[in-house]
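pls read this stuff:
=====
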Amino acid sequence: MANQIIDISGNSNGTIEIDSLLIDKPNKQCMFEQVIAENAGKRQATLSTLTRGEVRGGGKKPRPQKHTGRAQMGSIRASNCVGGGNSFGPKPGRNYKLYLNDKAAAVGLKSSFTTNHENIFVLEDSKIAKPSATIFSKLLKKLNFYGKKVLLIANDNNNLLLSSRNVKNVTSKNWNQVSTRDVLNANYIIIENSAIVKIGKVINK
């Protein structure tokens, strides 16, 4: 099935095959693992708890070491006391990243494009003189995409990326930044023609 080619004004200029981005049968497991890895990589790891040395108070030994008939105790801020420190709580700097091998990541990305294949529109390489949100908004309105979740994939086209940056519900990515999560999350995908070639070389090598 061929995908529609459009220009920056939203006019149709025929169809094109994007076989380099597709796979015969989508692999749900690869897509799942890729999305989990992407979500994990976005975690900031800023959780922090106080140890017994960081909580306030507890400087004085609460009772004698011996002859009280009770357990030895050096501080009322030990982890077994109310208001005490946390023994094994989280600290900033933990690495939550998960890693997939390149082949599995490529299969996951191709599977996501295949799953969303009917909603992919190929944009002719456009040379916008300067960033213009108005131009890109008119494109979306012409395609009846305005207000929908749209993923724009550009080929090192900074003016195009800047034109779409402030448009509602539009996610703008350069060709080497797009992820499986982005593709699956979009209602419609607009991808520059030359970006297809570059993505295809990476995921099919």
Summary: The chain has a mean pLDDT of 92. The chain has six helices and six strands. The helical segments are 28-41, 102-115, 133-142, 158-164, 180-185, 193-203. Strands lie at 3-6, 12-16, 120-123, 150-154, 170-174, 188-192.
